[in-house]
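2024-03-11 09:14:02 DEBUG pipeline.ingest accepted 1 chain
2024-03-11 09:14:02 DEBUG pipeline.ingest length=133
2024-03-11 09:14:03 DEBUG pipeline.predict start
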Amino acid sequence: MILYLEGIDFAILWGILTFLFGYVPYLGFFLAAFPPTLLGLFKYGITGAFAVFASIWLINALVENILFPSLAGKSLKLSPSTVFLSLIYWTYVLGPSGALIAVPLTMVVKMLMERSEDMSWMVKFMEPGQEKS
């Protein structure tokens, strides 16, 4: 919606791609923000490019830091290092499509390991550390 208000061409396409790239940890934001920012640069100059990037960054920051953790953070129970390593592994195994589905695939593997008594000890390495109070 914000890209449409800013007059960026193909705003709906960039919104859909931003949603899809949102599943790619760490890199997805930059991959999604690059094309509309480039269009903003061509259409409005450096100030327009900065406005487009800032608006995408603001919405992403609100969703990633406020909305997502409150809805799903505690239910996923994956440490950041596990997410990063799963991104590398699934991208190597499945290519670019593996990067898009790395976290869901890792959650499936984790659930399968939780059911096995022999593998349940590995689940502790995948979960975030316990906070001390």
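2024-03-11 09:14:41 DEBUG pipeline.report The mean pLDDT is 83.
2024-03-11 09:14:41 DEBUG pipeline.predict end
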